[in-house]
Amino acid sequence: GQSLEQPSEVTAVEGAIVQINCTYQTSGFYGLSWYQQHDGGAPTFLSYNALDGLEETGRFSSFLSRSDSYGYLLLQELQMKDSASYFCAYSDNYGQNFVFGPGTRLSVLP
Amino acid sequence: DSGVTQTPKHLITATGQRVTLRCSPRSGDLSVYWYQQSLDQGLQFLIQYYNGEERAKGNILERFSAQQFPDLHSELNLSSLELGDSALYFCASSDMDGETQYFGPGTRLLVL
Fold this sequence. Notes:
Order of helices and strands of chain B: EEEEEEEEEEE
Largest interface: A-B, 24 and 29 residues
Oligomer: heterodimer
Number of strands of chain A: 11
Helix content of chain B: under 10%
Distance between the termini of chain A: 41 Å
Order of helices and strands of chain A: EEEEEEEEEEE
Structural class of chain A: mainly beta
């Protein structure tokens, strides 16, 4: 079947580094995406990994290991505004049929 | 602002009724995706259209249907509404590969 697993909640303090893990199980896989969603808001795209390795975009980095069916989102220099839900997602058929994980709620404490 | 617009923002209706949600994609994007998000739940992919043609179907109920028009806007029709259909409905658009999806603000549907 198709599935993604993420921790339901993560808590960290301002200025810290936090890693949100995502494991997936699927027969077809084209890459792993990450989205951020603030309460009451729409998801916004953060990053995409098609190949193994680390992609860095400012304070956010994302990693993928296809052999381990595993990825993570790394958030550095945490800020209060980073408190949100974070979803990993994949497509099991190029550009089609996207599957989102259950989301990880990040709380950043002062 | 993602460039994707959705109307209406809020919708309150009764069980058994039918509603239509509308989405206009970002300029230049040919793909439109519809998602349902229930309270404190993840995003459930419903259906995708590409340049007017249905491209992929997810967990969309038979009571729900969608279409994409020649001007690329899309409509999601929900009929015989049930209490459990109350949710946020998001539309997203992308270029062909869907690696980056731009989400609209959503339509909050409440079925009473």
